[in-house]
From TrEMBL:
The entry's keywords: Heme, Iron, Metal-binding, Signal, TPR repeat
Record-given protein name: Tetratricopeptide repeat protein
InterPro entries reported for this sequence: Cyt_c-like_dom (IPR009056), TPR-like_helical_dom_sf (IPR011990), TPR_rpt (IPR019734)
Signal peptide: 1-20
Repeat region (TPR), residues: 41-74, 460-493
Sequence ranges assigned to domain Cytochrome c in this UniProt record: 43-169
PANTHER family: TPR DOMAIN-CONTAINING PROTEIN (PTHR45588), WW DOMAIN-CONTAINING PROTEIN (PTHR45588:SF1)
Molecular function as annotated in GO: electron transfer activity; heme binding; metal ion binding
Entry keyword annotation includes Signal: yes
Family matches, as PROSITE patterns: CYTC, TPR
Length: 536
């Protein structure tokens, strides 16, 4: 879709009778016919399901609730409310949501429904309990098994199949593949269901969304067709507009990732402006996530001003007091993205002027010490950098950091990488290349052990630093191997293309170096920084 058309779309409202809950005209056409005598209730139900697939769960609840208000006997309208109150791959279930979910299910059971609809309602009933247990794993597994039975009874119900796949994904969020790239036990069934839905309906927004998440870590190329369709399916749903970026980053299409997230920012900002939603998961998490992706994608092709502007915006979107709220401490990661981007682009003076985060925000404080240490090494002050390393290690080794969750990993896991990278850079600055290589190889090992997430919680891939140290110390073959491995993980990123070119030149492999140079010139054509000036 052309940018102008997308920008014009925003979250446009369809012509309708006045209601506290709007009907949008830019959420696509996905339809699931339900038992209701009220056409308007059907429209709100469809809107709720589309928003559910777009992970705007609170807005989905509003739509399903409006459908139920219009037709209180609509069992599936109440089912939609209960469904949206459950867990998903990005958020565990709030225990306080259990009672409202059970109440909605009770109304669903009392409503009018076909036999097929009742199987969905009864399957969902296995997901909730009162009081809610601390460990939901048995409930989540029971729901997945119940949805499997629904799909076996009604194999042509594509929405049931998509929801079955999602229920399996919820059992191990973001962990669908083993470290060596082999699928985990539920993954083959997830993929089989989603591919079956997509084959029958390539425009299914939920199946395409879930499929991207299911394959992005290991086999992203499988979801390229979904990525290329998804943004146009529901142009007013910011998170779905953003989702192609998950694949584009993984296959080296950084400009496409930038565009997807620029469009997503517009869609979400229009929604927030028009609807003024509560400052909850969507506004605090999904909306800044667009800027996070934008910053990372721009950084990989040398667009420093765009990356720095986006990373600065991430921090601005989350008020500092929110970082101390229960369940919101992971947002400290958003504070640190800008620090990592300043390191990425060697903005040393600007970095040293950043004030210290409060001590009760330990992850942010630790990353601040790391970033300052990098700046001091670059300025030749390795003694002062070592002081920053000591402060960083004090925080990183605090046992509480292992329990402090960021987006996908613990603060302790991320700060351990920071400690190793900074120690390696200090060693390199002191003329100890072998020690530097050892520390950076350990950092790369720790980076590899992180739970997969996008964009990565460690912003500057360690192998880019490692390859540079190997190159400067004359270990050209090792540098080449390191940059090639980084390019396998982050295809066509300019930093490692540059390093690979230099390592090939140093080995007198000029024809190969020239081929890499041609790729680099294409990738770096819109950059505003010089790779030579960066020292990489």
């Amino acid at each position: 879709m052309a940018l102008a058309l997308l920008l014009a779309s925003g979250l446009g409202l369809a012509a309708q009778a006045p209601s506290a809950v709007p009907l949008y005209d830019n959420l696509g056409t996905h339809h699931y016919s339900i038992t209701t005598s009220n056409p308007q209730a059907q429209r709100y139900f469809d809107q709720g399901l589309r928003l559910y697939y777009a992970f705007n769960h609170q807005e989905a609840i509003r739509a399903f609730s409006e459908a139920a208000r219009l037709d209180p006997a609509c069992a599936m309208c109440h089912w939609g409310v209960a469904l949206s109150l459950g867990p998903n791959i990005n958020a565990p279930m709030d225990p306080a949501a259990a009672e409202p979910a059970l109440a909605a299910l009770e109304r669903a059971r009392e409503g009018q429904a076909t036999a097929a609809e009742r199987t969905l309602i009864e399957a969902l009933a296995t997901r909730y309990a009162s009081p809610p247990p601390e460990d939901r794993s048995e409930l989540d597994r029971a729901y997945a098994e119940a949805m499997g039975k629904v799909v076996r009874l009604y194999p042509d119900n594509l929405d049931a199949a998509a929801l079955y796949a999602e229920s399996l994904m919820d059992l191990s969020p973001w962990q669908y593949w083993k470290a060596e790239g082999e699928p985990r036990p539920d993954t083959p069934q997830i993929l089989a269901q989603l591919e079956r839905v997509i084959a029958a309906n390539p425009q299914h927004p939920g199946a395409c969304h879930f499929f991207i998440h299911a394959v992005e870590a290991v086999q992203p190329e499988r979801a390229v067709p979904c990525a290329e369709r998804l943004a146009d399916l529901m142009p007013g749903a910011g998170h779905l507009v953003h989702m192609p970026g998950h694949i584009y980053i993984r296959v080296g299409r950084y400009e496409d990732a930038i565009r997807a997230n620029e469009h997503a920012v517009h869609a979400d900002e229009t929604f927030i402006r028009d609807q003024n939603p509560a400052f909850g998961v969507y506004v605090a998490g999904y909306y800044p996530h667009n800027y996070d992706f934008l910053a990372f994608a721009a950084s990989m092709i040398g667009r420093s001003e765009q990356a720095l502007s986006a990373s600065r915006k991430i921090a601005e979107l989350v008020p500092e007091p929110m970082l101390r709220e229960p369940g919101m401490t992971f947002l400290q990661h958003h504070m640190t993205r800008h620090l990592q981007m300043l390191v990425r682009f060697a903005r040393w003076e600007e970095l040293l002027a950043v004030p210290a985060p409060p001590t009760d925000l330990p992850h942010a404080r630790g990353m601040w010490h790391y970033a300052r240490g990098r700046a001091l090494v670059a300025q030749g002050n390795t003694d002062a950098a070592r002081d920053e390393l000591v402060a960083l290690r004090t925080i990183a080794q605090d046992p509480r950091m292992a329990e402090l969750r960021m987006e996908f990993n613990s603060s302790g896991a991320v700060l351990a990488i920071a400690s190793q990278v900074l120690e390696g850079q200090i060693a390199a600055g002191q003329g100890k290349p072998q020690e530097a290589v050892e520390r950076l190889r350990e950092a790369a090992r720790l980076e590899d052990a992180l739970t997969y997430g996008e964009p990565p919680e460690w912003t500057v891939p360690v192998r880019q630093d490692l390859g540079s140290v190997l190159l400067e110390s004359g270990q050209y073959q090792a540098a080449e191997q390191t940059f090639r491995e980084d390019l396998r993980r982050f295809p066509d990123n300019g930093w490692s293309l540059h390093g690979l070119e230099r390592s090939l030149q140093a080995q007198q492999r000029n024809e190969e170096a020239g081929e890499v140079r041609q790729r680099l010139e294409r990738i770096w054509s819109g950059a505003d920084v010089s790779l030579a000036a960066s020292g990489r």
